[in-house]
Design brief:
Layout: H1 2-15, E1 19-28, E2 34-42, E3 46-51, E4 60-65, E5 69-79, E6 82-87, H2 91-105, E7 127-132, E8 137-145, E9 149-153, E10 163-166, E11 169-177, E12 180-185, H3 195-198
Antiparallel strand pairs: 1-2, 1-4, 2-3, 3-6, 4-5, 5-6, 7-8, 7-10, 8-9, 9-12, 10-11, 11-12
Length: 199
Amino acid sequence: MLGAQQTDYEHDRRQYQRVKVLLHGRLMLSDRSEHRCQVTDMSPGSAFLATEGAAQIGERVIAYVDHIGRIEGVVSRIMPEGFALELNTTPRKKAKLAAQLTWLANKHELDLPEDRRHERIAPRNPAGVLSLEDGRQYRCRIIDLSLSGAAVEIGVRPAIGTQVTLGNMRGQVVRHFDDGIAVEFAVVQRRESLKQYLG
């Protein structure tokens, strides 16, 4: 059984392009215990999770990963530092994951601590509007802002991975915190484009 699952994992390695990443997250094992994890290697069909959580071959695992959102799958291989997860994904989700991974692969500074690549500034004008893809809009307060993202105090909590627009800056929800969400912009902004908030 183990040999067959490892073969599936190797098949995935050949079928999909694997991307070296460093994404923080949390996972839940089948006994409902939660553990911190880092995804260090991922394709649209599988992921390697470095974690102290001990899993078994064939165990179902759910993880919430920064920049990616919710993933789930079955443990296909165990290593001393973690395990490989064969992802349960629909063709549509696979296509979305492929696009996300392509975007992440093109970010050259991904492995800096907490992905804080740019100085974060408290805006002089913190009032903002966050728009979802379906057209819903919510007033929000921008706590801090950088060229690559923003922390926003808001009454709703769109799921991690949700595409949003803050003002005219497209991005996605990458983190939740007590009073709001963190948004990472799809492209690094120019300082001029933040002028309305920074004054």
